[in-house]
Design brief:
By secondary structure, the protein is of the alpha/beta class. It has a domain of 126 residues: Maf protein (Alpha-Beta Complex), CATH 3.90.950. Helices cover 40% and strands 21% of the residues. It contains 8 helices and 6 strands, in the order αβαβαββββααααα. Strands 1, 2, 3, 4, 5 and 6 form a 6-stranded mixed beta sheet that branches. Helix 2 links the parallel strand 1 and strand 2. The longest helix has 19 residues.
């Protein structure tokens, strides 16, 4: 007779620790909201200053994804006692001479399983494109064009350009939830 596997109630009730590979309050907040949205339970979400090991302004899917993966892995190396590690990296790329912005999210768990997702994309205005093309980071370009300061720790380009209809936290949060799919549906993924 096969009995159902007994669940470890203590493990289910234990607060899970999630480390975000950034001290950016938007990245920490969107991660916390996404974990609460996707899972039941209690979570403690903390940020760490770790390197993405890519350019300050990643260019293209590959470099941006690598930055998110590196942030998650570097966080795990610095603080291996956590339950999950999250890397979020924003990037830009060109499609027919038009620049668009996006971000990659990578989530690792303590069993070396991985979840990954990409945000939606949006095209940037010429004034910002010109500055980024000259080597300026997108957040700095936003600040210069819109006469702001530290917008990447607030609503970011997406919030500024949508007049607040979509803020940076909301924009990233959806991708974090999508990156959690392999952990939500373990039976369907070889995570």
């Amino acid at each position: 007779m096969n009995f159902p596997k007994r669940r470890n109630i203590q493990e289910d009730l234990r607060q899970k620790l999630i480390i975000v590979g950034s001290k950016n309050p938007v990245k920490i907040s969107c991660t916390e909201a996404a974990f609460h949205q996707a899972f039941q339970g209690s979570f403690l979400v903390e940020g760490l200053n770790v390197s993405s090991d890519v350019s300050d302004q990643p260019y293209g899917d590959e470099e941006t994804f690598q930055g998110a993966l590196n942030r998650a892995r570097n966080s795990k190396n610095v603080f291996p006692e956590a339950d999950y590690w999250v890397g979020i990296e924003g990037g830009v790329d060109l499609i027919q001479d038009e620049m668009h912005a996006f971000a990659w999210v990578v989530v690792l768990d303590s069993n070396d399983h991985i979840g990954k997702a990409k945000t939606s994309t949006f095209f940037l205005p010429k004034a910002i494109v010109d500055l980024v093309s000259k080597g300026m980071e997108l957040g700095e370009a936003d600040d210069k064009v819109f006469d702001r300061s530290n917008s990447k720790q607030e609503n970011g380009a997406v919030g500024i350009l949508t007049n607040g209809a979509i803020d940076r936290k909301e924009y990233y949060q959806q991708a974090v939830v999508l990156a959690l799919i392999p952990f939500l549906k373990k039976e369907l993924y070889t995570v």
